[in-house]
Amino acid sequence: MPLPLLGAAVQLHHMDMLRDWLFDQNRPLEIQDFVSPQVIAGDTSEQIGAWQKMLAGHKGPRGIHGPFFGLDLSNPDAAIRAIVQQRLIKGIEIAAALEADVMVVHSPFNFWHVLNYTNYDTLRGALMQACADCLSPVLARAQTEGVTLALENIDDTSTKDRADLADLLDHPQFRLSVDTGHADLAHANYGAPPVVDFLTDAGNRLAHVHLQDVDGHADRHWHPGDGRINWRPVMRQLAACAPAPRMILEVRHNLHCLPQTAAMLEGLVD
């Protein structure tokens, strides 16, 4: 199957250099100005207004990265989960105001959990239930606004935890995201499955992908091709996905080179 057009994760100050490339072919974009506590907890009307003005004429898919700093979906304290819910619902409201239909949220699962599922036999069930309780009002609001939550692997070493949570929730507005760099870090440092297996095991739950490269040591967010990931099998696996996920280049530096990087990746699929 042919790849869909690759898009980019952007902040407002990136748009002067990327606007023509994103708008000319209506590539997908992911807005990342609303992730920090200082922004999401305050008055976001000015930022929303600036983005609404910038987006005039864009007809491609768009999403936002939801808030994530300190926001653990699996926190066992219901009072703390209530704050997490408030922040995520605020993110959904922002997404709706920007006519975005996807909001990326962070997975709570990590390697310690995997090592201790047998040691603490109630741990996995408690994590799953806490996530379900936390996300219940969030998903209700997401459904009202037509926004899908895409749960991104962060410290995940198991490909099953997020998939099993998606199956437990069984909600039309809850899907999975795979970050290629995060997956490769888990593979390099913890013996997790390789990137292609994260993609494969997500199955038809996969709605969104962050494309970024790493060196196996830190979360570099380098351009694909600048790190250690073998991109040809990754892109072929993505081309085989049905339905096709939204694919977003999420790099930190030299964003002016994104058109060349996208062309390189698109050229890897026969």
TrEMBL record:
Protein name listed in UniProt: Sugar phosphate isomerase/epimerase
Entry-linked Gene3D superfamilies: Divalent-metal-dependent TIM barrel enzymes
Pfam families in UniProt: AP_endonuc_2
Keywords: Isomerase
Matches recorded under InterPro entries: IolE/XylAMocC-like, Xyl_isomerase-like_sf, Xyl_isomerase-like_TIM-brl
Species the sequence originates in: Roseicitreum antarcticum
GO molecular function, one term: isomerase activity
UniProt KW Transcription keyword: no
Keyword Transcription regulation: no
Domain of life: Bacteria
Domain (Xylose isomerase-like TIM barrel): residue spans on this chain: 46-253
Coiled coil: none
